[in-house]
Amino acid sequence: MKRFDDGTVAVNDLNFDIEEGEFLVLVGPSGCGKSTSLRMVAGLEAISGGEILIDGEAVNGLTPRERDIAMVFQTYALYPHMTVEQNMGFPLRMAGVSADEKAKRVRAAASVLDLEVLLNRYPRELSGGQRQRVAMGRAIVREPRVFLMDEPLSNLDAKLRVQMRGEIARLQRELGTTTLYVTHDQVEAMTLGDRVAVMHDGILQQLAPPGELYKSPETVFVAGFIGSPPMNLCRATIVEEGGGLAAKFGTFSLSVDPSSIEKYPLVRERIGKDVVLGTRPECFSIATEELPENKHIVAKVDMVEMLGAEALVYLPTDAEQIDSSMTFGNGAARKVASADVQHLSLVARIAPKTVPSHGETVSLGYEADSMHFFDIETGHALR
Ligand code: ATP
User: Fold this and answer.
1) Ligand 1 in contact with 30 (CB < 6 A)?
2) DSSP characters for 1-57?
3) DSSP state of 302
4) Per residue of the chain (383 residues), what is the pLDDT tens digit?
5) Residue 334 C-alpha to ligand 1 middle, in angstroms?
6) Ligand 1 centroid vs 35 CA: distance in angstroms?
């Protein structure tokens, strides 16, 4: 827990364990408290309540140096007057490591990071990606118990970011060093993390392997945050229909298949009530044959974004859109005044061969077993 002097609670009730050798990513929007959490683990920020253990040892009272961790920040802060070799060896010099041992460790790190030919260069003679690798090298040579990384790729351009992302993943696997990594980028989180902790407003929303976060989000916030384009989220009413259940949203209706009910069993208790319905864009497809009612929706295409391998098709609906971050920001739904109601512009991810044109009326089928349901008040999954 972290309460700043001005009363701001940046981190609230954050409990988790990181396994030995694990790569754990803390992800969330700006201001959710992830950097503060990392700085508390590093010892750069005093904690207002709770305990931090490394290897079972409470480190609350230890200085950053005594915690045996190495941090990599988004600004690499290399010393401009030192060469790559001197920059990388600097922490070892400070720790009183012998010259021989220092040279050995710097060479080993340079080889892992492909920096051998750059050892005599100065930071101003390096590209952004190379500087970032030197910053990583400086962390590696210390052979710490834990790596802490705070948005280390955010100053790089998109292409380099993807390349460095792969290098960080490979490096961490090779070294096997326990890593806590902070980012606001959900794609980075999903590709790097063995497990991903999603934070919002200082509160841990869910901690799970990437695939599970995507398949089984525990809250509306996670549902709306993980995935690109995000899940379609709208207000729906659960009704009984032909011996089963259906979700009505605006003038649309889709039947809820048994496997979705199995996954979200509390839906059965919501007959006649409103819930949040989540549908993934890729679960829609253009119907090529006539589908039974309640197995498809019919809507008019408003916009098409052709991305090459796929197209994003936007279809306006009269269902009330649910904003995952605003509405459930404090754990409970704000009652939306009717004048404020935003209507859902449904996004479908469609194979390029079947892309409709602007203004066309289409029939969209939905993969029956991939509906998501959440409590309209609390934003929690109905299970
Ligand atoms: P970003 O991605 O923008 O860095 P973050 O998720 O890392 O965001 P933090 O930097 O941890 O968020 O900040 C969490 C909250 O704590 C924010 O509301 C921020 O304004 C507040 N905060 C951070 N530092 C202080 C401080 N020294 N005093 C008061 N409030 C602070």
Assistant:
1) yes
2) -EE-TTS-EEE-S------TT-EEEEE-STTSSHHHHHHHHHTSS--SSS--EETTE
3) -
4) 889 999 888 898 788 899 999 999 999 999 899 999 999 999 999 899 898 998 888 888 888 888 989 988 887 789 999 999 999 999 898 888 999 999 999 999 998 888 999 999 999 999 988 998 899 899 989 889 999 999 998 888 888 888 889 889 998 999 999 999 999 999 999 999 999 999 998 889 999 999 999 999 999 999 999 999 999 999 999 999 988 999 999 999 999 999 999 999 999 999 999 999 999 999 999 998 888 888 999 999 999 999 999 999 999 999 999 988 875 644 444 545 555 788 999 999 999 888 999 999 999 999 878 899 999 988 999 99
5) 24
6) 7
Predicted ipTM of the assembly: 0.94
Q: How far is the CA of 37 from the centre of ligand 1 (A)?
A: 10
CATH classification of 222-375 is 3.30.70.330, yes or no? no
Domain range 2-220, its CATH number among 2.170.150.20, 3.30.70.20, 1.10.10.10, 3.40.50.300 = 3.40.50.300
Ligand 1 atom closest to residue 199's alpha carbon, by position in its atom list = 6
Residue partners of 223: CB distance under 8 A and separation at least 6: 217, 230, 231, 233, 278, 324, 372, 374
Nearest CA to ligand 1 atom 9: 33
